[in-house]
Amino acid sequence: MRALQLATSGASSRKSNGWEMTGKNLSQRMIMLATALFLGCSCYASEAFAQYPNKPIRIFLPFAAGGIGDITFRLVTGKVSERTGMQFVIENRPGAGGINSAMAGKSATPDGYTLLQVGNSYTISASLFKSLPYDLSKDFTSVSMLAQFDMLLATRTAGPLNSVKQLVDFDRANPRKLNFGAISAGSTQNLAADMFRVVIGSEATVVPYKSSPELIHALTRGDIDVGFDYLAAFAPSLADKQLKLIASSGEKRSQLTPDTPTVLESGIDYVVTSWNGVSAPAGTPREIINQLNREITTVLQLPDVQERFRQLGMEAAVTTPEGMDKRLEADLQRWRGVISKLGLQQETTNQR
Question: Which end of the chain is more exposed for a tag (fewer CB within 10 A), N or C?
Fold first, then answer.
């Protein structure tokens, strides 16, 4: 009986040892298989990147064709195409405060074949609305800024105002007499005018207009005292001597209007700058982001591109993806503060 037990025990021991060996072999084989799969995937990813792009790249824009933003993107992508052979398809998705374009970008596969325009208008929306169907910081990856442009304060040439100091002095001596003008309530221009009113402690009225031409017509006619808009809008009337500039809104004087002082130079803490740039859906491979950034920033430094930007009232903004991230976050903080200071209640959107 004891001999039988020993024999059985020995057989069990050998069986147990046999299973242990099989388990070790299985583990080793799994490790080898996982390594092979990893190397295979890495080779596939490297090969896919080496072939990028092998089809046209779509870019969603949140505004209609023909505007300055549209012209800017077509200029830059056209130059990139000339240099590299990359093909781009611009798709204009205006409406819903940029939500249509943002959602098209968010829902796209993050493979480098879909890009979208972003800028300060999106940071304003993120600050103004309580809820949006996308998260500007989490759903998109920055590629590169393209252009930046300051807000300008203009008045009619024959008018009495020639500086920010004169404007402030007149306002204090004549409360509720000044009228400011800007396009579309909720636009960068309109918020900039309202912000200026609050910063200088004015009770001036901010009159909204449907378009820049309507604003300029009211300004030259004397219906309003000061208009807030970009150089591209004011340029023809400045050239015709119908309007003159009082100040610009940047941290330093713009190269486009070097003789125009900033509001900061008057001792008033007021900075408002606009910009636009390129983003991709979150998860887009870093190699592709870097490649696109290199091509875009190379084009932005071409003399003919910079000259065309100046004609459009903009300055080229050469940045890394990280530099654009910093600008995006800084703008989010700035506009949240502005909207809070203006006492604007955040709205909700039904877009989903």
Answer: N
